[in-house]
Amino acid sequence: MTAHVPSSDAECPGDIEQETSIPVRFAAIAALGGLLFGYGTAVINGAVSAIEDRFEIDAGVLGFVVASALIGAAVGALLAGRIADRYGRLTTMRVAAVLFLLGGIGAGLAATVEVLVAFRIVGGISVGLASVVAPAYIAEISPAQVRGRLGSLQQVAISAGILLAFLVNYVLAVLADGSEYELWLGFEAWRWMFLVMCVPALVYGLLSLTIPESPRYLIATGRAGEARRILVDHLGERAVDQEVDRIRASLALQERQSLRDLKGSALGLLPVVWIGIGLSVFQQFVGINVIFYYSSTLWESVGFDESRSLQITVITSAVSLGATAIAIALIDRVGRRPLLIIGSAGMAASLAMMAIVFGTASSVVVDGVTLPHLTGLQGPIALVASNLFVAAFGLSWGPAVWVLLGEVFPNRIRAIALSLAVGVLWAANWLITVTFPSMMDFSLGLSYGFYAVCAVLSLVFVLRWVKETKGVELEAMH
Question: What is the C-alpha separation between 73 and 41, in angstroms, rounded?
């Protein structure tokens, strides 16, 4: 899962227009893997309170239930590179769709918390596969001049999936007068939140049947004739031979990739691998998924009712989607690095504001747990700060990290390095997610203070180590 098909050195405007129009459609369909990502991980948000009451579990177990999908996602991400290189990018997408379907059905029908966790892990494996194969496929079929924008479609789909999950959760909860109450066919509303996962799974699986395999994979597996037909469609006949030669030359320099290829003198790994790992860790350690996984429970805990809390989650996800759309327009113009710098600064400021609000709020005891209670302007300030944080992330670290992970690694290690980096991303996501319920019980102010510190460190990391990749062909990455 390495390089895209570069453009020819001499292109006229008509060639460029033809070259970019078809990959946009292919990239948009592949990026729907991000819809599985967003929906599959965020759907739990509306079901947290109902699951806690239905299975009578404590904060520690609840955190594990919410984070269980992320265990599967980490496993799926680590396996994705090998599966995609052996069986193809499209086969990997279709396997992800089937697993997502099974995960939704199993979680929706779960009779015990153990069964719920098991099927959340199955759905998570699907999400992990899609989170690797989508950016890799997009990078391989995208011309360099629009690769950032097409790569950002992954984050748009993630944001759209989160918004869709929150909208579905809100509608189902309203129809049932509460997520814990029966809705249709004897199933509670929270169960239908999971069962609806069947819809995006079927859409993704069916649409994956309408796009071609990556030309680079086809050439790597001896199917050059199929690759030529695909390349003719968006490069033109005269450029195909040159592109095939370039891909073959790149493949000739590569051997079968393994973790041993990532070894270097910098604490055991190559510096570029540490950069990928750093991007993955900081994207999660700023606490973005605390907002997406727990926000309804969080807002309920500080004084909002369930309906109002779910409305807030919908607004927040819409803000995220809007910010990501702006990022798409900017990422190939201003570059990846400037967006990361601006985003880190914005996240640090908004997270610090949230830490101050929650840290200075009055306290109330709920079920034996002391929680902050927002009064006066504290509620509006917290809501504004939360949405500013989501906007800053959506404008920067959300889309830019996925673009960078798809393009920053050299060809000889791209597949295995991408799988490792995304696996670390999911592990970091799991760690933040599983610890938040206990951290919330201890102190919300300190929790958001920690995320604010991580945002500051992310700024230092970008300034010191992250280089710009705007406009650089994947074959030229070193």
Answer: 9
